[in-house]
Structures
1.
Amino acid sequence: MAKQTGLLQFTGKLGNVIGYRRNGSYFIRSMPDTVQQTTATRRASRDFGIASRKGKLIRRAITPHLAINPGGTLVNRLNKALITATRDRLPELKGFRFNPYTGVEQFFSLQPIITTGGILHIPAQKLWPPAKATHLEIVVVAVRINFAQRQITGRTESATTIDLSQPFNGAELAATVPGRGTLLVTLQVRAYEHGAVIENRRSKAADIIAVVVPATIKKQPVKVNSVPRVKRMLPYQSLSTTGKVVLSVPARQRE
């Protein structure tokens, strides 16, 4: 691994080398002559591809609506979180921080909750703002993503500002989106001092606080009533005194 020092820096393949970016710097490494793939490496490659596609959708849906800089580690951190979060475990993304240095829980003594009606409820409480902060800006970004079809199916935003010079009596903001797909709710908090954002990484946060996956409808097996087979019966047969079989033929057939 070597650091790129030229004027033109790149990522991806170039001849027999690979360029990539890490923490804002560009590096280069040589390509291996052969790649030995085992069952485990193929599975890991598949899981990484799935996580990368999901991560890209989540970033497209949420980050343009956040007013914080998530830094150069967002892609790797989100992909890593998604690799272990299969469809049934996507709620494990709850608590993911777009700002890795600060979480929204650091601003509240009582944590916000999502009600069954899709409302973000912040209880009345004593807030924990950063030093010098006069206001807190609260923004909720709720999105729906259909991961199977790779589509962002809906989005809504709501916001409020808390005056820290007054007692905080609680707040409620809309936090749901109608439609199909997985619901992800992100809460952003930024501290202000007399109308200006306090520009340090400890004074702002944006976390995924809720993940609701669509309910899975299990198909019940269809029960088929078993009807006994009915054999076609011949007309009544009678034996004559001679032992011969005499068929009873309907009158219409005799005509």
2.
Amino acid sequence: MRKTEEIQLCYADLHGLAHRLEAFRALLSPDEAARAARFATEELRTRCALRRGLLRHLLGRATGRDPAALAFAYGPMGKPSLPGGPAFNLADCKDHVLIAIAPHETVELGVDVERLRRLPDAAGIAERFFAPEERDAFAALPDALRDEAFLNGWTRKEAFIKATGQGLSTPLDRFAVELTPGRPARLLSLDGALEAGTAADWSLFDLHPAPGLVGALVVRGDGWRPVFRPLEDAFSA
């Protein structure tokens, strides 16, 4: 096993960043500003500007570069990257934002976050999208654990397809994750046709950025340690 390296994680409730809206808007590229402006409501426009502004601010801190001057590149399926900077990934759920920043550019990682809630349609969604072993594990659980189990599975699967850069072009039933509450997060199986290596090539981590949230981090390789940094540290001198 190689030397342990950290994945830096930052969680934010966007309500707490509202006072930085204009400063963050000033960091956006013309394309980003136009994208934010296309949302139908002011609430959605504000969320978009705050998310992207926070990402630029954090990457500027990590690289020592002007956050407004950062130029992103995009993979074939739209995954953003920062040439010459660290790998990163962003997940959001309404006003909740989670950003992961790796120590260097070549790291393959993905994050996802969801609000823990009642999900009346969980069984139907699992039947449609989950792998057979995931469906079996889900069906064997008591009702009291099924919402958490479903969100465990969903966030881990979303984080994985974000880490590979293939996004929703990846059939979700072609790989399986552990979803049973209380068991360690891990990749159980991976179809070789996905060309993403083997299940053993990936590290999965449970994330609990705030009460009532379920999250996951997926990173290729081993020796990783996720570390949450207080949001206020990002704005200290």
3.
Amino acid sequence: MRVLVTGGLGFIGRAVARELVSAGHRVDVLSRGTGGVEPPAGADLVEGDVRDRDRIAAVVADRRYDGICHLAGLIRGRDSIADPLSYYDVNLGGTVNLLAAVKAAGPVGQRPVRVVFASTSIVYGSQRTGALSEDLPPAPENPYGASKVAAEQLIGYHAATGEISAVTLRCFNVAGAVDGYADTDPTRIIPNVLRAVRGELPHVSVNGDGSAVREFTHVLDVASAFRLALEATGAGATGAKATGAGAGAGVGAVYNVGTGRGVSVRELIATAERVTGRRVPVEHLPPKPEPHTLVSDPRRLMTEFGWVPTHSDLDEIIGSAWS
């Protein structure tokens, strides 16, 4: 299968491209530039910006992709509040341009182009607790989440017409590293814990007593979820297969990507100290009004695609990011 991975040099996108190459697919990675990141061996770099409608149309028309993993996007909730238009421009506008290009190019052979869209658990909002199911209606609280919901709906509408076959993957906390490329986002706890261990930060700030529970999935396991979704996505993965979360809004098949296994912040810090052999300095801040426990319910992905996370033990996640 010939596949385009948008955002293919990002933390998750590069891992997805690597997984697809390893599975024997012909892979192009679309990126605005390299930023010092090399494509995985066997993948070709295609320079382009999803906001550039003419460029995206030319790439899709010329290369005639069987499948597209769409990961290009802006991903920080707080930044989206300060600059909401940029988030809609990239996350929704970029998806509009990509789908327009696919429609203009037409299907490859007898099957519609397969699209796997990277969404986020942020679409569920912060006022829920426990294991989150795809049947919950979206409740985004910032332009980042809202732009992702809008893109999910747009993809669902196109899937319902039969122009594409589509799956949306709502990723929870993605961590770890592959080929030496780790998540460096300073808004996330694992990168900050390791920065504190290295002495790049004076301490890690923890809200409350550290008993809050979250889950973390290794980027290798997330990449395998994209591959399985791409390879399984066929004519049946249309709006007719919509979940309760979005059936009324035209959202196609939606799946959570997460382990469903929560760990407390205290456990995470203790694991980092054990794996690195170094102390993690911690500053405790007053607790924030946020859910105590927030994890995914990944049973749908596991049942329908046979996905099993094999790298998401916390020791392996932190060890790979540390090394």
4.
Amino acid sequence: MKKLKYILFSGLLLLAGACDKNLEIEPLQSVSEDFALDSDENVKLVLQGAYDNISRDGVYGGNLFRDAELLGSDGEIRWVGTFSDPRDIINHAMDAGNADVENTWTSAYRTINNCNNVLSALDIVVADDRDRVKGEALFLRAACYYELVRLFGKPYVAGGANTQLGVPLVLTPTRGITEDSYVSRSTVSEVYQQVLTDLHDAMDLLPEDNGVYANKFAAIGMTARVHLTRGEYQEARDHAVEVIDNSGYSLVPNFADLWNQDDDTDEAIFSMQVSAQDGANELVTFFSIPAFGGRDGDIEIQSSHLALYDANDTRLALFYDGNGAMRTGKWRDQYRNIPIMRLAEMYLIAAEADARLAGNGAQYLNPIRERAGLAPISPALLSDVLKERRKELAFEGHRIHDIKRVGGTVDGLNFDAPELVFPIPAREMEVNRNLQQNDGY
């Protein structure tokens, strides 16, 4: 019953194309809001539905990270699986019918619509919980829009007008199809501004400790990410350092102990909770092998990636030979939590900002190096920091986004090539006459 209540509110016009238009069925978004939003308990169930949607395989349940790594693979990983949609992503041969691309779009907008429903019913929430509930909904909405605009829009250009098309901004609940429901794509600039607005509000509302749910420092850390993407390095540094200094999180001494855990580690700022009964970890499905609950070892780690590590780098020990190829141990075991944001990332954001602003990122880079068994360096130049990101955050969904924001290339494609941008799903184009497709599709 719990799932029924929030699934009924996950419909959105942008998702309507997921239904067979020839079927005589009532659209999900036409269900009365009073069914689920008539009590404090039910509003919180809809919020829980937002967490459920964002933890599905299309978003933070795995495919969002997997596809970002495939899209930015540049020969460091290889897809050998039989599924055609991931193969098309790594080969930069996607089309608008790619089911994995559609899944990410659909799951993210379902999450957004859950959040919008919660935000529209805050007066029903008991006063003691109202700020927290609002903050969580704003954080989850911001996270979804941030991921969507990075994948479905052209890269953000620091200092530019950023009038290139992003994704549709829907900030109110979609409960029925009207003319207002046919939403156009907002600009990249507009989407990023909304993301920052939501995150800044969330920071002010969320508690510092919120169990397994989003807290104040998750919002601050996400804000640091966004500023880094936008090339706003002082702001990125300030937010990252606030998390480092004030959150109470700490670097786990042994890198291997970060992974394949039932519970969140002291380094995990925000994670997806996965168990045999609930949640998804599709990273295990595709990065792991059958002996550990994976599929067939669909993603193999190539020597060009392994060559990045010094021989005494302890992170090398996490790689293993399985089914005749090298695998990452980050996503080895079934039913384990997925760290979405780690304290190490905050150190790397601060280090990169320092390297760009002052020419030396050693203060925040060296703790990451030393944990990996590497000697400290000074000065730590930008190239040092970027290389460390490739190793420390490997296969955690950062690769294509780092390539885009530093102006790199992938398999000979420039960072802003149409092939590195997801197509708007074909079904969304069919159902919404105001959507404009990306170049090349």
